[in-house]
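I have a small job for you when you get a moment. Can you supply me with one protein entry, sequence and fold together? It will help me judge whether the discrete encoding reads sensibly. Write everything out right here, beneath this request:
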Amino acid sequence: QFKDKFKSWEGTIRKKNNIKYLIDLQEINKRILLDNGITLENITVIDLSTYKDKEILHSYRRDGKEFGLMGLISSL
């Protein structure tokens, strides 16, 4: 049902196991920006992961109840 509704997101969702799926949020956000007129030269995708980059980013998935907080300010 989800895949039928969001056909433009094809290739961004993959099955992890029988009950979980993984969604490539970086790619989805990039596609949303492109669909709304932002050119590729004005989009920067960084290779950071809240799960993998423990030294600089917090992650509830990774740290559970011992997670930290982050903030983001963005503008277009």
About this structure: Residues 1-38 form one domain.
